[in-house]
Amino acid sequence: MEEVNNLELISIAEEGRSLVIGWSVNGLWLTAFTVGTVLAASAASSGWVLARKSNRILTSGPSYQLELLDSLYNNSPIAFAVIDRQGRFIDINRDPSDIVGYSKEEMNGSPFAMMVDADSQDITRQIFQRTLKGEKCSQEIKILHKQGHTIDLNIHTSQLVRRNKTIGILVFIEDISDRKRSVERIRYMAYYDDMTGLPNRRFFMNRLEKKLQYSIENRTRLAVCYLDVDRFKLVNASFGRDFGDMLLLQIAERMSRILSEPGDLARMEGDEFAACFDHLRDDEDVSSRLDEIMSVLEEPFEMNGVPVYITVSIGVSLCDNGSENAETLLKRADTALHRAKENGKNDYLLHSGDMDPVALHKLTIQHEMRRALMNKEFILYYQPQYDLASGQIVGLEALIRWVHPDRGLISPGDFIPAAEESGIIVALGDWVIEEACRQNKAWQDAGMPRIPVSVNLSIRQFTQRNLTDKVAEVLQQTGLQARYLELEITESMTMDIERASQCLKELTDLGVNISIDDFGTGYSSFHYLKNLPIARLKIDRSFVRDLEQDPNDAAIVAAIIAMAHNLQLQVIAEGVETKDQVHFLRSHRCDEMQGYFGSPPLPSVGILELLQDKLNRSALPDFYDHNLGFSI
After folding, report:
1. pLDDT digits (tens, 9 = 90+) for 163-201
2. What pLDDT, in 10s, does the model give residues 562-584?
3. What is the distance between the alpha carbons of residues 46 and 156, in angstroms, rounded to a whole number?
4. Minimal CA–CA distance to 173: which of 129, 112, 86, 117?
5. Can you give the pTM of this predicted structure?
């Protein structure tokens, strides 16, 4: 190669301009100025002289030209280097150690390729070859830092020409490592869960679409699983959210052991995960993989020194005929998951065709309930409660009904579960309290007996912090005295004893009575009840129903009555339908009863007629009690 002298000027013609590149002891100069009329004017008035002596060229021009070139070389924020035709560094305008870790002295004379990462070698070689042929190029490449890690550079190249001959390459260098890391971080945030490091819903769905397409084209079998941690809210409530997050992290780690292919396991949201199984042989293969997931979670997780056992529910959807898309498969798996949880949790369930109409029915019911609440389609029925000693009506329980414009009267069992699941139960429950209080006050104003009306509270209502304020406001608006309202809660609501005690104390301070509904079927005990402001217990109908056939049920009912009385609690039995049941309850001194033996639930008009007819006298059917020797 012809050598470049230190003070030799190199002229590159470019679109009517002249780019002058020089070498000096201080480094590389760069300048550009317009030719044409400027050159003619300069020759006439300024008289610039170009004199060449052996290794030196003298020019006259703007007084600051040399200083400008020197400043560009030494102070430019953009690094640029000159590479010879053999790819070796000739010069670089600034200390490169802050970019690549090498000093100028180490780089001068060294091949550019020595620091190019293996993945970028071929493209860099092509860029240099194209540049030597006169093409201007731009390319992102990876460079090896002196310390061994890679950095991302964006290089722009153009040829260096002297006397119409290409003698090297000018390379402008931009470190884009920080920008690339920022882009990668944004991509990570878009496609990965920050807490567990697993792919998120978006990544999983994209990957599932590709796997589904492969499965259809190759006629292989694929399954999608939707997984939910059972009672995860209890973990958060017991240990706090930080420990809940730690538990999810450990769950993700365990499941990753059996779903090792990246992207086959994803965290969808909260405590829900999704997984994909492909290349399945048969149904047994599906079951074995699901059993593997269940078994890997059987060992307890340690939370703050306490072993925590968890279970999961899994819904599964299979792709068999190739007509499904990713969204449909995941929706079916989610539907199967909800059915698995309804069936008792801690199990997996394969989606079947009859589940979709059920899910659609739920969605329809929820939509129609919102409309029904606005259109006032709900009404209250009331079931009398009787004193077993006198037979008189001593209370009423409010029971909601739905008068559907197309399907007629709908019982609570057909819509209350959907209301609880959707959250409409709160608005519905507030309406029931208000309507029951209004109706009871209207009966009292009409001269009927002053007796309490009972209203069931949902767990969502009970956990509201402003429950007492709501009740107080309803009582004030309707004018009903607090002692004529009784609120019924279930045993499960008393599990959080501290929260329950505070809430129940506020309500009883207001003057409202509290009863435990369905006693014997939940998780409570008499130990808890003695610390709660409870007025009475309602024995669940399931024990009363089999009193005559099952000695165990009879013993349980007798024990509940005895222990409740020892705690100064009243006892009411619900679901009473026969004379023999009444005999048993009276003989064990049960205080009250409720059921079809006395009266079925009646609308407000029917209750008014019943109260008027049985005013101040026994309302129970007359029959002779052979055990007690008198009629009731």
Report:
1. 888 888 889 988 888 888 888 888 888 888 888 889 999
2. 989 998 999 999 999 999 999 99
3. 37
4. 112
5. 0.54
Do the Cβ atoms of 139 and 127 come closer than 8 Å? yes
User: Tokens 């779903």 map to which residue?
Assistant: 259
- Strands 150-162 and 453-456, bridge-based pairing: unpaired
**What are 387's strand-pairing partners?**
592
CB-based contact 228:295 (threshold 8 Å): no
- Beta-bridge mates of residue 229: 312
Beta-strand ranges (E) seen in 233-387 are 265-269, 272-280, 301-303, 306-308, 312-319, 348-350, 378-387
Give the phi and the psi of residue 91 in degrees, each rounded to 5. -160, 160
Q: Kindly report the length of the chain.
A: 632
Q: Report how far residue 502's alpha carbon sits from residue 209's, in angstroms, rounded to the nearest whole number.
A: 52
Higher pLDDT, residue 609 or 495: 609
Task: Choose among 61, 60, 76: nearest CA to 28.
Answer: 76
Mean pLDDT of 507-529: 78
DSSP state of 457: P
DSSP 544-581: HHTTTT-HHHHHHHHHHHHHHHHTT-EEEEE---SHHH
Per DSSP bridges, beta strands 513-519 and 485-490 are: parallel
Distance CA 312, CA 138 (A): 54
- Determine the 3-state secondary structure of 29 from DSSP: strand
Burial class (CB in 10 A: 0-12, 13-18, 19+), 122: exposed
Average pLDDT over residues 312-317: 91
**First-to-last C-alpha distance (Å) of the chain:** 125
- What's the DSSP call for residue 199? B
β-pairing, 17-24 with 27-34?
antiparallel
Nearest alpha carbon to residue 237 among 554, 568, 463: 463
In this prediction, residue 52 has a pLDDT band, given cuts at 50, 70 and 90, of: very low
Q: Residue 618 above 50 pLDDT? A: yes
- Residues forming beta bridges with residue 142, ordered by sequence position: 152
